[in-house]
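Hello again,

I reread your note about wanting to compare the complex against the isolated chains. To keep things tidy I'm splitting this into two emails, and this first one only covers the full assembly. Below are the input lines as submitted, including protein chains and any nucleic acid or small-molecule components. They are followed by the predicted structure of everything together. The single-chain runs will come separately.
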Amino acid sequence: MANQKLDLLQGTLDVMVLQTLHAIGPLHGYGIARRIEQISGNQVLLNQGTIYASLVRLQQRGWIAAEWGASDNNRKAKFYSITRNGRKQLAADAAHWHRLADVMGRMLAMSPGGETR
Amino acid sequence: MRTLVAHITAFFRKRELDRDLDQELAVHLDLAIEDNIRRGLSPEDARREALVRFGGVEAAKEHHRDARGLPWLDSLLQDVRYALRTLRRDAAFTTVALLILALGIGANTAVFSLGNVFLFRPLPVKDADRLTVVAVQRKADSDPDQVSYPDYLDYRAHSSAIFTGMTGYDISIVGLGYRGHADRLIMSYVPSNFFSMLGIRPALGRLINPGEGDAPKTGPVVVLGHSYWEKRFGGDPNVIGRTASLDGTAVTVIGVVPKEFLGPYNLVEMDGYAPIGMLGFGSNPDFFTSRADHEMRVLATLKPGVSIPRAQAALNVIGQRLAQEYPHADQGQRVRVFSEPKARPEPAAADAKFLVASVFLLMVGLVLVVACLNVANLLLARAAAREKEFAIRAAIGAGRGRLLRQLLTESMLLALAGGVGGAILGNSVGYLLNGLRPLGDLPLRLAFVFDWRVFTYVAGTALLAGILAGLAPALRVSRTDLNPALREGGRGLIGESGRHWLRNGLVIAQVAGSLILLVAAGLFTRSLTRAESIDLGFDPHNVLNVSLDPGLQGYTQPRAEALCRELLRRTQALPGVQSASLAFSIPLGYYDNGAPVYAEAQAPSPSHQVPGASLNAVSPDYFTTLRIRILEGRAFTDADTATSGPVAIVNQTMAERLWPHQDAVGQRFSYKAAAGPFVTVVGVVHDAKVTSLLDAPGMYFYLPQTQDYHSTHVLQVRTAVPPESLAPAVEGLLRQLDPNLPVYEVMSMDKSLQGANGFFLFKVGASFAGTLGVLGLLLAVVGVYGVVSYSASRRRHELGIRMALGARRVTIFRLVIRQAVLLVGFGIALGLVAALGVSRLLASLLVDVSASDPVTFVGVSAMLMAAALLACFIPAHRAARVEPMAALRDQ
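Full-complex prediction:
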């Protein structure tokens, strides 16, 4: 049970990170975490620490790249950006999620009589 | 792929990546705190809020490491390091366990290496996987044997549809003289296609050319074996082109075979190779024409895609045609084809070998199992002592899987180290075997190689041992509820009474396994004793053998005969000598002579094969010296000379078979051809076991040396004193007669009976089984001692109470011993039942001993029980000497 939950979260988090970097451009880890919280309307209660496991995984797969740079307040921070492979992966993942959401929406719209509302 | 590389890289750049991560996380928290302060929180609240949102810095780091690196390898390395540390700390345990495993694995390695030589390892020749041996059974029920040269030529000429090539070799012991010094060599006479078919390239010079020496009395050349070239000529390349003398014929040394090619025969390395035509100069000119003379060991390479059964079918057709064409020699003969490894060392072994191999593998397998049970028990005892450690580890978060892995890592490490020890041990057994000399002076040469087969076997055995020994204890520990262990302050649960069954079961299984080994050892030993007490029909005690071959020094027949007469005369005059005689071969030696026999006036019916007999050429006093009883007629005398009428003495079997219900003396037979020349039987002697220890005696006859000359002689001396003590005197006589004459195989007849056709195989079998039996006994004793002394120490408290309540020391002593007797008794009972089943497998390998021989079964059971009780004496004694107060205070 615990494993299943983790898997789902993991996969979801990876897509969120890719999408964030795709939409906003290079960000550091804190920035990514904050942006995900904001976009989700704070509905995702994220342990911000878990984002770093996701970042290293995406990096090792070659979907994002990392570079040390200066933050807004001139602190040295690691900035992540999406790569070309990352964009391809994101497109594939997005299509998957859209289909899944579509199917789930229709399934849940089914009324007890069996007709679609 | 790329991801894997990234993971591996990350694994090795751990420190750098960790530093990066620390910095990254620190920045993250700083940024969060700043944000929070901007939102109006106090610095403390801002910090706390940031940490809460982050959620466990250490956990995040751990996740990060798991995601980027190779977490399983990390924990494996951790396990290995930890296991090494604990094993080193517990040096006594580790040493004992390692020793036990090394012995178990070593025994397996040795047997498998031997099996590798005889069963698996291909010859280092071309197309070895398609190489076959062709042999014939002279009768339907006889062993497959060599092929006659004319038959070989016919098979070769008509089998081109199934074989790409056929060749052969005739092994012979020859003399090779070089610069006034002659050596005895083991030589293969080969057709000229021998080396080309086997794809052998010369290491030096050239090999035999196509067609060279295929015709009788041609091809005066010799190719040297690599070891012999190094030993005799010091590896001198200039020996090529030199002239040597091969059994008195001048030959040119033309080349040396490569080092890895020991020859086609599995037991000895060939010293040299000569063209088959050179046999024409030898003592058996019939070799090239006689179909009754089976000398050729035939090798053939299958065409790609041709199976053994198909080759067999094709050979059957050729065989039938030969039987029709040559009914006298080939009728009833059956041709067989074997894959080459199957026919090692002799095609006769093909059928029995797998039984022997599986019996031995089974026995060493059992040794390994017993060794593993033993180590399992030791591990279990150790696990009980380490219960607290495991409880603590579990309490701080080690999962059950992790504990299991940790324990298995320990047993695996032990097993792998044991495997290394075992491989070394097993290999040295091979080198020991290579020193044995079952063929007289000729050393056994087995091509032991630590090749991938042996390596795979050892590695597999070690892994198996690791799992076998480690799994039960590991499962046991990881399953235990560890809370009570922590609470109870040291007195743990594993091994608590009522939970003894696992350890007790292991000991019972161990004792049972050891008993099976001991039974096998006992049966083989009894078998040897029986074999040694077989009535040989001659008296081997107090006989000295001395071999000489005047032909090696170029003696002509008349000169050699003069030398031998003088030698006999002077030997008989030596003090301590009762009689002396000369013979061509000795009983149960490693060479022999055979011939077809034709009784006069008994035209062999066309459907019957000519019977074969073995023969020996002897001097008049032979029967006196060996004490072979003359039943009828007379022995040879000095009056039987080259010019007097040809005579023979036959054994009982031959007399009865050729002339049933008649007086054999006065009859005539021929060992050359149906039309004669004939020899007259002048005597009948008792059937002595001269060719085979176990088989019923076959037809055998003796000729006077004056009428059947061979250059090879064995002087046999019956002595009134220990035979070896006369050896220097006899050798001195020979030196007086001719200082250059090489003398060899100077040994007592008793000792020569230990050779390949004598007791060698029984000895090897008995000492092998005996070694395993002793090993089994040792392991059983260690196991019983371990479990009894352990449980006695766990019961110290209880025994203390018993004594405090008035139990006497004798009672305590008896209590401990009783436990041991019960365990061993169960083990023996179980082992006896199993051994009864297993020993049936051995039945066909035993001589004159029943597979359920009660003496053996009862004897080894008693021995095992006695040894086990002796082992328990110490812990029982110690338990009985416990001071009750001390034992009670301990808790």
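For quick reference: The domain at 2-108 of chain A is CATH 1.10.10.10 (Arc Repressor Mutant, subunit A).

B.
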